[in-house]
Structures are given as C-alpha cells and as structure tokens.
Amino acid sequence: MLELRHIHKYYNPGTVQEMCLFDDFNLTVEKGEFVSVVGSNGSGKTSMLNLICGNIDADRGQIFIDGKDITRQKEYKRLKNIGRVYQNPAMGTCPDMTILENLSLADHKGMFFGLQRGTNRKKEKEYRELLSQLGLGLEDKLHVKVGSLSGGQRQAMSLLMSTMTPIDFLILDEHTAALDPKTADLIMELTEKIVREKKLTAIMVTHNLRYAVQYGSRLLMLHQGNAVIDIKGEEKKQMKIEDILEKFNEISVECGNG
Amino acid sequence: MDFVISIIEQGLIYGILALGVYITYKILDFPDLTVDGSFPLGAAVTASLIKSGMNPWLTLPAAFFSGAAAGICTGLIHVKCKVRDLLSGIIMMTALYTVNLMVAGTNNVPLFSQQTIFQNDFLEKVFPDVIPGYVLLGLIFLIAAVSKILLDFYLRTKSGYLLRAVGDNENLVTALAKDKGNVKILGLSISNGLVALAGCVFCQQQNVFDISSGTGSIVIGLASVIVGTSLFKVFSRLKPFRKKNIIQVTTFVFLGAILYKACTGIAIRYFVPQSMKMISALFLLGVLVLMLIFDNADKKKVKKNA
Q1: Nearest CA to CA, how far is B113 from chain A (Å)?
Q2: Residue B197 or residue A119, greater confidence
Q3: How far is it, in rounded angstroms, from Cα B302 to Cα B306?
Q4: CATH of the domain at A233
C-alpha cells in the first residue's frame, strides 16, 4: 500500500515565479490497484510520480509504503521495490550494450554487482523465451546493441527490464506517448498482461483518455494539484471518454482557457 | 632496430595509461584531468619506495593503489561536493603536484644505482653481461598484457557491466537500485590506478623520477584512445570481423599509443626537435579527418544499398 500524506510542494520558492503545485495533497493506493492518472500539463502528474520515486523531495508531508515512512529515503534505495518506465524509450535501457547485457543487468537488480560473470549462459534460453512473448522478433537479436532498435522495441525492453525482478510498484510515466498508435496499443496490452500476471500495483500517467478508461481499476484526474476525479470499481467500468472530456472542458473554462 | 624497440616500449607504457583514460573518457564519459597528476604520483611513490630499499616488484601494486586513492578523491569531489567533472580533475591534478613533491622529496630523483624491475640482481645473474633490450621490452609487454587482460576480464563482470551502464545511461543504474555516484568513484579509482601504474613503469624504465613527467600525459592518453578506438571502428566494419570481434578495443588502445609514440619518435629523429608537438597535433587531426572520410563513405554505401 502506498500513501501520500499532506504533501506540500512549491516550485521556485521565495521568487516571483513561486508556484504552488501541491497544497495538502493526499492519496492512498491499495495493493493490487491499477491507477490511471490523467490531467492537463502542469497538473502535477509527473511531479507526483517523481515524489513517489524520490526524484524530487516534498517540502512538507510524508510518503509511506506498507506503513513504512520512506520520505527521506534516497531515490536509488526506493527503486529497489519500484519499477519505472519513462516516456522516452532511451531512459530505460543502455544503448551501447547488447540486449543480452541489458537483460542481465536488469535481472540482477537489487543484488550485489561483484566480480561474477556479467552474463549467465544458462539464462540465455530463459531470456529468449521472455523476449519471444513480446512478439517483436527480439529473441533472435540477443547480441544486437539496444541503440539500434526502434523506439517501440526499446520501450518493450524497458517494460520487460523494469519488471524482471520482483517489485511491488510499477510506475508508468506516459510510457506510450512517444510511440506510434499501433505500437502504443501493443505496449499497453503488454503492460496490462505484465501487471495482471505479476499482480503488481501500478500507477500510470497518460494523456490518452482511451487508455485511461479502458485500462486500470481506478481513474484519477489531477488538476492544480488536486484529484478532481477519483473513481474505482463499478463506477470506473461505467466511465466513458465523454465523461472525462466534459470534466476536462469544465476545468479549462475555469482556468480561462476555454 | 633500437629505435623501433624504444618506440614500442614507450607505446606499451603509455598504453597502460591509455587504458585508464579509456575507462574515464570512453566508458564513463568523464573528461578526467587527474591523469596529469596521478601519472607522476605513481612515479613518485615508486621512486621513494625504491630509495627506501623495497622490492621493486612491490612498487607496482603500491603505485596502483596510490593512483586509485587519487581517483577516489576526484570522484568524491565530483559526486559529494557536486563539482563539475572537468573542474574536479583540475583540482586534484593541482593538489597532486604538491603531494608528488612531498612523496618524492624533491623534483628530481635519479634511480640509476638502485634496484628496479628492469635492473636487479636476479636479472644480472641470468644475463651476466648486459641486460639486452628485448628483456626490458618483454617485461614491459608482460605488465601491459596483464593489465589489459585483467581490465577485459573486469569489464565482463557484473561490476564491469554496471560501470559501462553508468556512462551509457546513468538513469538505469539508479533504476537498478544502485548509487550511481559510487559506481563513478569506482571507475575513476580503477582508471587512475592504471595511470599511476604506467607512471611506475615509466619511472623505472627511465631510471629517474621527474616532477614534470606528468605534464601533457592526459593529451597522450586521449590521443591514444581516440586513435585506438577509431582504428577499432574501422576494423570492426571489415567484412570478416563484422559478426564477431576477435580483437578487443583495449588492444587497439595500445596500438593507438604505439602509433602516437612512433609519430613523436619520428618527429624527434627526422625533423627539428621543435616540430614534435606540431607533428603530434597534425597526426591526431589526420586520424580524425580520416575517420570522417571513412564515415561519409560508409553512409554513401548504405544509401546506395537502400
């Protein structure tokens, strides 16, 4: 279970550009939930993910995972139990290393990186099977550098790599935004499958309202650091894109953008 | 013949230095100027240990560890004090000048009457008259080969993978729940360890420690790495080697160092001595331009095939 309690976050504090992003923001994500987060630019979606991962610090407030306070824990320590996929497919892989080397790295997450052999021959078969599930033909390219793969292939690799070891949370930061519609659909289906099979708790930020409605067990719409929509269960299943769009327009009018 | 041998000797010694520079410049993507201080540091440590009567072979690990310590300092300055990479190196390089003077005691320490790895009782027993040049070359080759093989081995371990990853995409290292700063510090320490090892061998081959021996060593290292990796690029595109590289890039780094030393050697021998630096500069520029021409030719080929 993940809890954000009374989070306050200001950008550029003490200057003319001071901007309050979160003012007493609270969120609880139950174990096994798949939360889709939508909202306009600057609504705090990515900042929320950064706060959870420890990429940025909250000015006030606490973050708990399973009741344990992790507010002061360093980013790399938190990521032991968290997998994260970024919008940019280049963020999750090493371009100058081969697919096999990348998978070997990911497979060793959280363990001690000592003088043992970098790649384990015995695991090659296992990796091949894992890759063949993607259906992208990567299983025959184990010794190809990841830098020469397409964005979609790399994003599939990132997704695979971030979920190879047992983790509690999967953080998806607009991870389909840089892909063409067909590849994006494929990555989304793959995400769904992995989350379901590994019983992960997932938080997905997306600009694609169709994905937000279609996938996930809970929907969150952020606006100026507040959750203006937060629905789950049956209600979420009944939700239609039009309903979200309506709310979106309402907010925009409020801001004077309409 | 002596001329060729001395070039290869120098090339192999500076090749060890180039291995260190390869780690920072190519793998970590960290322009590390500590090298200009850690090369003479290795030499200073060696000179003072030999003066105190220590077994000359023990100076090799001692020099390596002294360089590694210098690298750790550079890393700490960069990671903990958040100083930019170039500046951290400059700060350490400057500080090491004083350290080197204090370790060696003075700015010039001759070792002609001392036991070194190249002139000692054991070698004199085996070669009673004069120790021939090829024995010297053989010993240098041995040290260079061991350094290269150990580095190649290391880069294929889990820890080595992490080192390559931190230069490639440090974000991934954080995602693997590892502190990227520590990995960088580790890389800097191995790199400067190798550089100091080169300084140690250099000092014993020259039979003298000189405080100015480090000046410009980063340039030699960088040139060797650039020439070496460029040649590696050309080589790995040759037809028979496209599938699998049988010769490692580290071997090419040594080749780069030897070529660079050959170039400066020829400059000193056949031209006016003042021309040395100009010829080395032109050589480096020449290699870079050749690479550009090669790259362009390759792109055209791809277009034709498409």
Answers
A1: 41
A2: B197
A3: 6
A4: 3.40.50.300
Chain B residues in contact with A166 (beta carbon < 8 A): none
**Contact at CB, A118 and B171, closer than 8 angstroms:** no
Burial grade of A23 (CB within 10 A; 0-12, 13-18, 19 or more): middle
| CB–CB contact A93 B165 (8 Å) | no
Give the integer Cα–Cα distance in Å for B98 and B37.
10
Instruction: Give me the pLDDT at residue B137, please.
Output: 92
Domain membership of residue A248 (yes or no) is yes
- Residue A88 is encoded by which pair of tokens? 């940019």
pLDDT for res A174:
92
Instruction: Please give the tally of structural domains in chain A.
Output: 1
Segments in chain B below pLDDT 50: none
Predicted confidence at residue B296, as pLDDT, reads 83
Half-sphere exposure of A91 (CA within 13 A, CB side): 16
Q: Is A8 helix (H, G, I), strand (E, B) or coil?
A: strand
* Domains of chain B, CATH where assigned: 2-305 (1.10.3470)
Contact B177 A79 (CB under 8 A): yes
Residue A197 lies in a domain: no
pLDDT in tens, A172-211: 999 999 899 998 999 999 999 999 999 999 999 998 889 9
pLDDT of residue B245: 66
H-state helical runs in A31-170: 45-53, 75-78, 99-107, 124-132, 151-162
Question: Residue A258's pLDDT band (boundaries 50, 70, 90)?
Answer: very low
Distance from CA of B272 to the nearest CA of A (A): 44
Average pLDDT over residues A246-258: 68
Q: Kindly state the tokens that stand for A74.
A: 């360093």
Residues on chain B touching A90 (C-beta within 8 angstroms): 169
Best mutation target among A56, A91, A94 (most B Cβ atoms within 10 Å) is A94
Please check whether residue A243 lies inside any domain of the structure: yes
Q: How many angstroms separate the CA of residue A42 from the nearest CA in chain B?
A: 23
Is B156 an 8 Å CB contact of chain A?
A: yes
On chain B, the residues whose CB falls within 8 A of the CB of A95 are: 168-169
- Cβ-based contacts of B249 with chain A (< 8 Å): none
- Inter-chain touch B176–A108, beta carbons under 8 Å: yes
Residue A58's domain comprises: 1-80+209-258
Give domain status of residue A30, yes or no.
yes
Q: Does A178 touch chain B (CB under 8 A)?
A: no
Q: Encoding tokens for residue B233?
A: 């690029």
Calpha distance B236→A101 (Å, rounded): 19
Q: How confident is the model at residue A77 (pLDDT cuts 50, 70, 90)?
A: very high
State whether residue A125 sits within 8 Å of chain B by CB. Answer: no
